[in-house]
Amino acid sequence: MAAKEFPKTWPPLVIREFEDIKKAYIVVRDLVRSLDDLRKRVLEVVNDHAALIDFSVSATNSITSGTTQTQVGATALTSRFNRVATHGNVDDGVKLPTALAGKEVIILNDTATADLQVWPATGDAIEAAAADAVGVTKIANQESVTYQAVDATTWYITNIEP
Questions:
Q1: Is 21 helix (H, G, I), strand (E, B) or coil?
Q2: Are both 24 and 79 inside the same structural domain?
Q3: Residues 103 and 154 grouped into a single domain
Q4: Number of H helices, E strands in the chain
Q5: pLDDT (tens digit, 9 = 90+) per residue, 58-114?
Q6: Which residue would you say has higher pLDDT here, 154 or 102?
Q7: Residue 87 belongs to a domain with what CATH number?
Q8: What is the rounded distance in angstroms from the CA atom of residue 136 to the CA atom of residue 149?
């Protein structure tokens, strides 16, 4: 069977735009990679927003603060609203979740004893403090404090309620 010949007046579509098929393949391959990267980034953004929405309606009751007075030993908070009900010693503490711009965390020290210290998640910072440093504001007994993440690494106190 003989190869089919196209009329000389019909312009070869692919060959006219690209010097050879290999260059066409490279362009298509790069386009597919770019689209795949875009798809992955869109999924990351959607997942971040979904996590933020899920987090915004969560609450944890009866938290016991960590007793080591360190970031490593602080009780990790996992909800938007957190009620610390058991807190034995001065400077026992809790640790904020990983910062995400727009995330808000409310901590209520619902004890009759001592001040509660708050640490950021590893690599994060509270206000002007260095990364991983304990926040300078302690939460007094029967007081609540609201923390707001302004980016992926920094928390700020936006409200203190006695």
A1: helix
A2: no
A3: yes
A4: 2, 9
A5: 889 999 999 999 999 999 999 999 999 998 788 899 999 999 888 999 999 998 878
A6: 154
A7: 2.60.120
A8: 16
Spatial CA neighbour of 132 closest among 110, 115, 154, 108:
154
Where are the strands (E) in the chain, listed by range? 59-64, 75-76, 81-86, 93-95, 104-109, 117-119, 125-126, 143-149, 154-161
Residue 112 domain flag: yes
Over residues 125-137, the pLDDT tens digits come to 999 899 999 999 9
CB atoms within 10 A of CB 117: 24
Q: Are residues 132 and 72 in the same domain?
A: yes
- Residue by residue, DSSP assigns 34-74 as HHHHHHHHHHHHHHHHHHHHHHHT-EEEEEE-BSSSSTTTS
Amino acid at 140: A
* 97: number of Cβ within 10 Å: 21
Q: Is residue 45 part of a domain?
A: yes
Instruction: Go through 6-21 and write b for each residue having 16 or more CB atoms within 10 A of its CB, e for each that does not.
Output: eeeeeeeeeeeeeeee
pTM of the shown model: 0.68
Range of the domain at 20: 14-54
**Residues 87, 113 within the same domain:** yes
